[in-house]
Amino acid sequence: MSTEVDFKALWNKEEAKDMPDTKELLKKADRIRKLTRFKLVAQSLLLLATVAILLFAGFRIDHAQVTTMIGLVLMIIAIVSYLAVANQILPMLFKSDMEGSSQEYLNQLIRIKRKNEFINKVMINIYFSLLSLGLFLYSLQFVARMTTGWATFYYVMVFGWMAFSWFVLRPRGIKRKQKPLNDMIERLQAVSEQLNDSD
Q1: Is the pTM of this model over 0.70?
Q2: Are the CB atoms for 81 and 126 separated by under 8 Å?
Q3: For residue 67, what are the contacts with CB-CB under 8 A and spacing of at least 6?
Q4: Were both Cys, which of 15, 92, 105, 131 would link to 78 (CB 3.0–4.6 Å)?
C-alpha cells in the first residue's frame, strides 16, 4: 500500500468534510512559490546589472593600483557566485507539481526550503565577506586621494551601512523570506498527517 497521500483524491470524498480545504491550501502554496520565483528573478536581474556597472567601471576608470582591480574582481566573484547558487532554485520554482501527487509537491517545497537555508547560512556569508573585502580594496586608490576627514567619513558610511545590512537587514530579510514557506510546509505536513491517521 502506498504511503503517498493524494489530496486530489481527498477532494472527491464526501466524508472528509472536517478536513481543511486542501485545494485552497495548495493554491496558497502555489502563490508563495510564484512570489518567491518573481523575487529571485528580480534579484538576479538587479545583481546582473550591478555586475555590468562594475565591469563598465573596471574598463573605464584608470586603476593605478593593483588593489583596485583585485577589489573589483572580488566584488564580481561575490555576486556571480551568489547568483550561481541562488539560481539553482529557479528550476524548482518554475516546475509545478500541482497536478501530480500532493506529497511530491510538499517534498518540492521542502527542497526549496533546504536550498534557501544553505543560501542564507553559507552563501550570504561568502557573499558579504568577498563584497566587503572587494569594496575595501577597490576604494583604497580613491580614498588615498581624500583628506583624512573625508576618508574616515567614507569608511564609516560605507562599512557602517554594510554592518547595518549584515546585523539588522539580513536577519529580518531571512525571517520574512522563510516565514511564508515554513508556515505552508507545516500546514501541508499537518494535513498529510491527518490524512495518514484517517487511513
Answers
A1: yes
A2: yes
A3: 137, 138, 140, 141
A4: 131
Beta carbons of 136 and 71 less than 8 angstroms apart: yes
Closest by alpha carbon to 68, among 137, 142, 144? 137
Q: Do residues 67 and 146 lie in contact, with contact meaning Cβ atoms separated by under 8 Å?
A: no
pLDDT in tens, 46-101: 999 999 999 998 888 777 788 888 999 999 999 999 999 988 888 887 776 555 55
CA distance 106 to 98: 10
> Are the C-beta atoms of 137 and 60 separated by less than 8 Å?
no
Tell me how far apart the alpha carbons of residues 33 and 35 are, in angstroms, rounded to a whole number.
6
The span from the CA of 159 to the CA of 174, in Å, is 21
When mean pLDDT is compared across 7-16, 113-122, 130-139, 168-177, the lowest value belongs to: 7-16
- Do residues 114 and 122 make contact, with C-beta atoms less than 8 angstroms apart? no
CB atoms within 10 A of CB 11: 13
Q: Is the pLDDT of residue 37 over 90?
A: no
Amino acid at 128: F
Q: How far apart are CA 162 and CA 156, in angstroms?
A: 10
Whether 195 contacts 3, CB under 8 Å = no
Cβ(184)–Cβ(28) under 8 Å?
yes
State pLDDT tens for residues 106-152. Answer: 778 888 888 888 888 889 989 999 999 999 998 888 888 899 999 99
